Amino acid sequence: MGVGDDVAPRFTQKPALRQEDNGQKLVFHCVLEASPKPDIAWFIGTTPVQATARTSMRTEPAGGSAYNVILEILGVTQSDAGSYKVVAKNRLGEVSASINLNFSAGGQKQQEGIAPNFIQKPVTRQENNGKKLLFECALTADPAPSITWYKDNVVIQSGGRFNIRDEPRDNKTYFLVLEINDVVAQDAGNYKVTAKNTLGESNATIRLNFDSSKKPQGQDGKAPHFTQKPTIKQQQNILLMTCLLEAKPSPQIRWYRDTTEIGEGGRYTITLQRDAGGSDLYTAILQIQEPATEDAGTYKCTAANDLGESNANITLNFQGGQKPAKTGGIAPTFKEKPKISQDPSGKNIVIECHCTANPKPSITWFKGTSVLAASSRIVSTILEDGNEYTLKLEILNFTKDDGGQYKVTAKNETGEGNANITINLEGPKEPPPVLDGKPIVRLDDNGTIIVIEQGVKCTTMPTITWYFGNEPLKVDGRFIMNVSQEKGTYRPTLHITNFTEKDTGTYKLVLKTAGGEATSTASVNVSALKPKPKGEPVKITQKLAPKIVNDGEPVEFVVKVTGTEPVDVFWTKDKKPIKHGDIFSISYDKGTATLNLSEVFPDDSGEYSVELKNQWGSAVSMATLQVKELAEKKQQNDQKKVEPKLQKDEIKFDLQSQKKDDSRVEITSQYKQESSMEIRTQSKTKQETPHGEEIMLAQVKPQEEATKQVEEIKPEEPKKIPEEPKKIVEEPKKKPEEPKKIPE
């Protein structure tokens, strides 16, 4: 078992039942190891168990990374029967175990066996120069568990590039392998293996990351190395094999007898404990209960972490007593990871590492799983300084094909040590992609497709990703992505079909090569991209002409233009809009705009303007209108200004006529503002009725004429008339008329 800073949960004691308080309390108890502390959940069937007055759950530290997990039920009844399951989970994995509570036959009988329990969490191993990758782990279970592998929560099916194996070992132990052939970068991710039987379930996880330049524990890691030879001692009926080693991060431990790996369980117990002598020191122990002569053989302890691997050997022999390894010997150990450098010429690379051993070890170099034989290009040397050895591997005139995983093995009669290093050899670094101009946005296929195109100069085909806003675009029925090449320039294009206004926005293109990355953005305005109709702006060919006319005459303004129809026309007078109506008549026909006034007055004088517009431009023309008053009307207007306003008065005078002497006419002249005159005529005949007749005529006469008549007639006292005379009123006229004759 590997115990380090972080440990996935695993049960070291399966759940067991006991009764307390004369059977009134039932206690479920199990023990597990985990770091960090796991979250615990209990279930009956598939229903979570809730804490109540009858039910309590607790997790108690049991030293180190061990915990006692307890469920207590008070006042047990038949309804509490069922299948109970406990689940422990932390960020490294999850494990579960089940137990049945059955009250039948007056008691309970628990199923015998072992819930699945991982005794070795998954580790990775490469073969075939890195083309094959293996995930390996080990567990104990009884009955045999069903195994399921997952990648990113998706079940992996055996077949094709994937091969899944579970190999039974001794003492209910199983060795699990997930094999991936022809490994590609897309195989990186989170892997999980789940083991399940009728007594419980357990799982373990591992992450595959191809970025070998990042060390999980920083730059101060240490490959495992054994600080002293293994020892064997016996305590009563237990045989203990102990190894001291140093490593960072904590190593995974495997024990072998001859060539067979020893699985934990039954008579074998495997532990790894931190040593008080230092933070990176560990003690690896193999316990064998009731050892027998059949246990004799050569035992090997293997310690491995991300930085390397080391082995220590010890022989167990029961003939004539225990024969430990030779005293004074040191198993080969590597205290640091191998280093790589280039000589001054830049054509050769050197892998160098340091090893401690006694006696002198034999050295073997590997590339992948193949032994590197000495040649004109491959030179291996070893420099000795007491028990310290400097190991070098020179590769002359290296090429890109020399990249890969290298391993050096040092072995003597007291043990074996290994160290690993990965060499990534690349040719000259290519330059980053360079954008060739700005992105081009255009319409294609008669305006039905938007095309965004960007040129980029790079030595290899770039990886291309298009974004709309911050969302990556996927190839579908509307978005089509292509790239063409011409003379070292790549031209990625994005075609947008069935576009709408919603496609307006910012598009981003990200181009990546081994040399770097380039980004281009393009703004798309769907409305602006739509084709505009072609046409000519408005141009005036005949301007408005100024007009001088007399009062009452008609006026017509005319302007002529050229330009693409339709044309809108706007007329104004003194900058105020003119509308078509009773006063103004506005028309436009084939480039001729007309404004008609059927009769003008002096108030119509002013500045007239016309603006003509189409979607390509506009033009303006202006002219003045002057309206002159007629002379007669002007005289009348002037007269109005100077004549006094008379109050109503009456002037009586005698009018001599050719009629009878006794007839009299009374004329009353009444001036008004309109210079009108009222003439009243009274006639009276002695023989006739005393009632006279009064006639009032409204007549416009010049002031001079009225005044003259008044002066020539002598006034006479009017006679009283008994009755009101009838009146006939006639409205005033604009122009003077001849006086009407008064009937006799």
Structure description:
The chain is mainly beta. The protein folds into 7 domains: 7-110, Immunoglobulins (Immunoglobulin-like); 124-208, Sandwich (Immunoglobulin-like), CATH 2.60.40; 222-325, Immunoglobulin-like; 334-423, Immunoglobulin-like, CATH 2.60.40.10; 434-529, Immunoglobulins (Immunoglobulin-like); 539-628, Sandwich (Immunoglobulin-like), CATH 2.60.40; 646-744, no CATH class. It contains 3 helices and 52 strands. The strands form 11 sheets. Strands 4-3-7-8-16-15-11-12 form an 8-stranded antiparallel sheet, with no helix packed on it. Strands 20-19-23-24-33-32-28-29 form an 8-stranded antiparallel sheet, with no helix packed on it. A hairpin with a 2-residue loop joins strand 17 and strand 18. Residues 655-665, 685-694, 702-744 have a biased composition (Basic and acidic residues).
